[in-house]
Write a structure and sequence with these properties.
Number of domains: 2
Radius of gyration: 23 Å
Shape: globular
Function: Catalyzes amidations at positions B, D, E, and G on adenosylcobyrinic A,C-diamide. NH(2) groups are provided by glutamine, and one molecule of ATP is hydrogenolyzed for each amidation.
Protein name: Cobyric acid synthase
Strand content: 25-35%
Pathway: Cofactor biosynthesis; adenosylcobalamin biosynthesis
Helix content: 25-40%
InterPro entries: Class_I_gatase-like (IPR029062), CobQ/CobB/MinD/ParA_Nub-bd_dom (IPR002586), CobQ_GATase1 (IPR033949), CobQ_N (IPR047045), CobQ_synth (IPR004459), GATase_3 (IPR011698), P-loop_NTPase (IPR027417)
CATH superfamily of the largest domain: P-loop containing nucleotide triphosphate hydrolases
Family: Belongs to the CobB/CobQ family. CobQ subfamily.
Largest sheet: 6 strands, parallel
CATH class of the largest domain: Alpha Beta
Length: about 500
């Protein structure tokens, strides 16, 4: 029967996802079969399994760190916010429906059997299961029928490591305050504290650690430094959004309110000469070398947002000189029209940006599949990536077709007049997430931009993104081995048991 350990945090973005990934990598390196688990994930970054099921991107990343294929049982419940008060609820990889926050809060206890079943599936496979919590276990208003923090820890009898983020300040209050708000049975589950994202000389922190251990009656099992690892973030709290222009090649990604799967562009950050900026206004946009329109959980709403704040007009004007590339929802926006006859988003129809000769109709059912192929002949600035192999996945509600029979070069063919990808002049669109993960595609795009700009970029740095990520997982594991007391963590595992 699998041993289990759980990582909870004092708040969102305390670093739980990366710590789980790092522990998965360490246990893998030490010869164990290890798997991640998060019962309920709220994020707009998602992944599609080989079976065509949808799960949180963070758990897919953690599975990669563990050296295993992502499975939907690692994340049985995924919530994808559609507005400030509601989410699309995905259970075992398939859409259950849209629910308001109050409705879901009342319903979630019905999902406990599905969570337990998913966990038992992992137990059959793994020696060790590393569980990630969500937000904070001390959210009093959410503790009733909790299925993701201490409620889950009780379900599977998991010992807990509690993580605080010192980079935001107040880490001692975070950790002690969380412990104080737990009931006694919950507090007994907390076997170790971790101070995360520390910068500076640890000896200065030592008096505070002694006080923390004395007051909290829980040992500190690690002070982890602020880590410069380039791995995928779980949600929009990512610090990637705060980067400023500094590279020779400047890439701007439009950060609309419901941006999703922005991890598509992480691959460009491995190149030292490239800066990837996330922008929300015309002033921030400036005059970049490439504009990406990413995926969106509310394509029509985000298009209206761009229309209202002037970004749409600015992008259309810049597209005469600057390449524009839309992925998924961004691809749909670049077309002539989006129709929503089934109220998948906002209902009705909306005029698109008219930069691609396509129209989109949002369907009742979501398309989810993995895909591989060869980029067919392209014209324009990115003609050099013609013939490159690609692989990735599709996850979208829309069916996109060429308007009025106008056909153009395409990335991956036509099926019943539906197009996976299209381009017109220097504007490109595709439904394929992960399209840029192959090194030769990134190489072709960056070298084309460099040539247009009259500069040279070093050769030999455009490795496949998967190869690059493997190095990052090893770097993450090495750092955690140096700053976590792994002997204590293994002892916690040895003492863990399941009923």
């Amino acid at each position: 029967m699998a041993k289990v350990i759980m990582v909870q945090g004092t708040m969102s973005n305390a670093g739980k996802s990366l710590l789980v990934a790092g522990l998965c990598r360490i246990f893998k390196q030490d010869g164990y079969r290890v798997a991640p688990f998060k019962s309920q994930n709220m994020a707009l970054n998602s992944f599609v399994t080989t079976e065509g099921l949808e799960m949180g991107r963070a758990q897919a990343m953690q599975a990669e760190a563990a050296g295993i294929t992502p499975m939907v049982c690692m994340n049985p419940i995924l919530l994808k916010p559609t507005n400030h008060t509601g989410s699309q609820v995905i259970v075992n990889g398939e859409v259950l429906g849209n629910m308001g926050a109050k409705e879901y809060f009342a319903y979630k206890k019905e999902l406990i059997p599905k969570i337990k079943k998913a966990f038992r599936q992992l137990e059959e496979f793994a020696d060790i299961i590393v569980i990630e919590g969500a937000g904070s276990p001390a959210e009093i208003n959410l503790k009733q029928n909790d299925i993701v923090n201490m409620g889950l820890a009780e379900m599977v009898d998991a010992p807990v490591l509690l993580v605080g983020d010192i980079d935001r300040g107040g880490v001692f209050a975070q950790l002690l305050g969380t412990l104080m708000l737990l009931i006694e049975e919950e507090k007994e589950r907390v076997k170790g504290l971790i101070i995360n994202k520390f910068r500076g000389d640890k000896s200065i922190l030592d008096p505070g650690i002694k006080f923390l251990e004395k007051k909290g009656q829980v040992p500190v099992v690690g002070v982890v430094p602020y880590m410069e690892v380039a791995l995928e973030d779980e949600d929009s709290l990512t610090e990637r959004f705060n980067k400023k222009q500094e590279g020779l090649i400047d890439i701007a990604v439009i950060r609309y309110p419901r941006i999703s799967n922005f991890t598509d562009f992480n691959v460009f950050e491995q190149i030292p000469e490239v800066t990837v900026r996330y922008v929300t206004s015309v002033r921030e946009l400036g005059h970049p070398d490439l504009i990406f329109l990413p995926g969106s959980k509310n394509t029509m709403g985000d298009l209206k947002w761009m229309r209202q704040n002037g970004l749409e007009a600015a992008i259309k004007q810049l597209s005469d000189d600057i390449p524009v590339f839309g992925i998924c929802g961004g691809y749909q926006m670049l077309g002539c029209r989006i129709d929503d006859p089934y109220n998948a988003e906002e209902g009705g129809s909306i005029r698109g940006m008219a930069l691609l000769p396509v129209t989109t109709v949002l369907q009742k059912q979501k398309k989810r599949c993995q895909i591989a192929g060869v980029i067919e002949k392209l014209d324009g600035i990115f003609s050099g990536i013609s013939g490159c192999n690609f692989k990735g996945y599709e996850i979208h509600m829309g069916q996109t077709v060429y308007q009025d029979g106008i056909e153009d070069s395409r990335v991956s063919g036509i099926e019943n007049k539906a197009v996976i990808s299209a381009h017109h002049k220097n504007v490109y669109g595709s439904y394929i997430h992960g399209l840029f993960d192959q090194g030769n595609i990134v190489h072709g795009i960056i070298q084309a931009l460099a040539k247009k700009k009259g500069i040279k970029i070093k050769e030999g740095v455009f490795e496949d993104y998967q190869t690059y990520k493997e190095k990052q997982y090893d770097k993450l594991a090495e750092t955690l081995r140096n700053y976590l007391d792994m002997e204590v963590i293994y002892e916690i595992l040895r003492e863990a048991h399941l009923d």
